[in-house]
Amino acid sequence: KEANNVLVIQGTNDTLIPPKLGKALFQSLTTVNKQLVEIPGAGHNDLYDYPLAIKAISEFFKLDFLELSK
Protein backbone atom coordinates (compact mmCIF):
# COMPACT_ATOMS: atom_id res chain seq x y z
CA LYS A 1 0.00 0.00 0.00
CA GLU A 2 1.27 3.45 -0.83
CA ALA A 3 0.91 6.46 1.49
CA ASN A 4 0.24 9.90 0.07
CA ASN A 5 1.57 12.07 2.88
CA VAL A 6 3.82 15.01 2.04
CA LEU A 7 5.80 17.22 4.40
CA VAL A 8 7.37 20.48 3.17
CA ILE A 9 9.72 22.18 5.62
CA GLN A 10 10.76 25.72 4.78
CA GLY A 11 13.18 27.99 6.60
CA THR A 12 11.95 31.58 6.66
CA ASN A 13 15.51 32.80 5.97
CA ASP A 14 16.22 30.32 3.16
CA THR A 15 18.11 32.09 0.38
CA LEU A 16 18.58 28.99 -1.81
CA ILE A 17 14.85 28.22 -2.10
CA PRO A 18 12.97 31.36 -1.09
CA PRO A 19 9.93 30.83 1.15
CA LYS A 20 7.51 31.96 -1.56
CA LEU A 21 8.73 29.10 -3.79
CA GLY A 22 8.32 26.60 -0.95
CA LYS A 23 4.76 27.82 -0.47
CA ALA A 24 4.10 27.59 -4.21
CA LEU A 25 5.37 23.99 -4.23
CA PHE A 26 3.14 23.16 -1.28
CA GLN A 27 0.09 24.74 -2.89
CA SER A 28 0.71 22.84 -6.14
CA LEU A 29 0.58 19.45 -4.41
CA THR A 30 -2.64 17.60 -5.14
CA THR A 31 -2.49 15.20 -2.19
CA VAL A 32 -4.93 15.84 0.65
CA ASN A 33 -2.50 14.80 3.39
CA LYS A 34 0.07 17.56 3.14
CA GLN A 35 1.70 19.80 5.68
CA LEU A 36 3.81 22.92 5.37
CA VAL A 37 6.03 23.72 8.35
CA GLU A 38 7.79 27.06 8.30
CA ILE A 39 10.82 27.30 10.59
CA PRO A 40 11.32 30.89 11.79
CA GLY A 41 14.91 32.04 11.38
CA ALA A 42 16.11 28.89 9.61
CA GLY A 43 18.00 28.92 6.36
CA HIS A 44 18.37 26.08 3.88
CA ASN A 45 21.04 23.90 5.46
CA ASP A 46 20.49 24.48 9.17
CA LEU A 47 16.99 23.06 9.65
CA TYR A 48 18.29 20.31 11.95
CA ASP A 49 19.38 23.02 14.39
CA TYR A 50 15.71 23.84 15.05
CA PRO A 51 13.65 21.60 17.36
CA LEU A 52 10.48 22.44 15.42
CA ALA A 53 11.96 20.85 12.28
CA ILE A 54 12.99 17.69 14.15
CA LYS A 55 9.52 17.44 15.70
CA ALA A 56 7.81 17.87 12.31
CA ILE A 57 9.98 15.17 10.71
CA SER A 58 9.43 12.79 13.61
CA GLU A 59 5.66 13.27 13.55
CA PHE A 60 5.57 12.93 9.77
CA PHE A 61 7.33 9.57 9.81
CA LYS A 62 5.08 8.29 12.58
CA LEU A 63 2.06 9.26 10.48
CA ASP A 64 3.54 7.79 7.30
CA PHE A 65 4.36 4.44 8.92
CA LEU A 66 0.91 4.29 10.50
CA GLU A 67 -0.70 4.86 7.10
CA LEU A 68 1.43 2.16 5.49
CA SER A 69 0.52 -0.39 8.15
CA LYS A 70 -3.23 -0.07 7.54
Structure commentary:
It is a single chain. The chain is an alpha+beta fold. It is 40% helix and 17% strand. The protein contains 2 helices and 2 strands. The protein has a two-stranded parallel ribbon. The radius of gyration is 13 Å and the shape is flat. It starts with 5 loop residues before the first strand and ends with a helix.
Mean pLDDT: 87
Strand content: 15-25%
How helix-rich are the residues, as a percent range? Answer: 40-55%
Largest sheet: spatial strand order: 1-2
* Whole-angstrom Rg: 13 Å
Give the helices and strands as they follow along the chain: EHEH
Largest sheet: 2 strands, parallel
Count of DSSP strands: 2
Given helix and strand content, the structural type is: alpha+beta
Number of helices: 2
* Large-scale geometry: flat
- Unreliable spans are none
What is the terminal separation in angstroms? 8 Å
